[in-house]
Task: inverse folding
């Protein structure tokens, strides 16, 4: 029996999950920057766990996971490992996920000094307060910021800060369907 058109496209759609770890969400904003082409994209892919859907957990195994940001706390590491377990292919997008990016500025400073500077020596600290906030339910801050490939195997990298939307989606299509695509020098964007 012939499969009706809409069902056929549902079956062949690729399932994608995305996450923002220790990033600024700029890479996710860039992903949305393809404007009307987003309508074409959702014919090809559907989104699972992602800030774009607000699904907190995976509903199924995914063909591809997109990672923004590196790892600065233990929750980031746990989330990244879940992505590795639940996605066939992992793609790190943006400098933060590839090598840690701007958050690694703290890597040459001991964690204790960073916390003192942020909570005790800052202008907004109440006079007399000498307590760095702590709650066992809060994610534990790591000794330094880690690139994603220091924690799990990453299959592909898309550089930029953020990468241009067209580069992101053309690269993803290339990975998922083997479509030919050459990145032009003019398409790199670092502002
Ligand atoms: Fe933000 Fe740039 Fe890091 Fe992407 S790579 S999360 S845009 S700082």
Result:
């Amino acid at each position: 029996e012939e499969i009706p058109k809409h069902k056929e496209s549902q079956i062949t759609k690729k399932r994608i999950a995305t996450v923002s770890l220790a990033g600024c969400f700029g890479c996710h904003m860039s992903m949305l920057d393809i404007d009307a082409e987003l309508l074409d994209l959702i014919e090809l892919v559907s989104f699972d766990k992602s800030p774009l859907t607000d699904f907190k957990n995976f509903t199924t195994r995914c063909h591809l996971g997109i990672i923004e940001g590196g790892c600065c706390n233990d929750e980031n590491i746990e989330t990244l490992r879940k992505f590795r377990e639940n996605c066939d292919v992992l793609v790190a997008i943006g400098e933060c996920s590839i090598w840690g990016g701007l958050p690694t500025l703290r890597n040459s400073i001991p964690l204790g000094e960073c916390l003192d500077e942020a909570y005790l020596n800052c202008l907004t600290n109440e006079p007399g307060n000498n307590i760095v906030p702590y709650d066992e339910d809060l994610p534990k801050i790591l000794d330094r910021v880690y690139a994603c490939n220091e924690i799990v195997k990453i299959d592909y990298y898309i550089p930029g800060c953020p990468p241009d939307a067209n580069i992101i989606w053309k690269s993803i299509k290339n990975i998922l369907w083997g479509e030919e695509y050459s990145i032009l020098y003019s398409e790199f964007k670092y502002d």
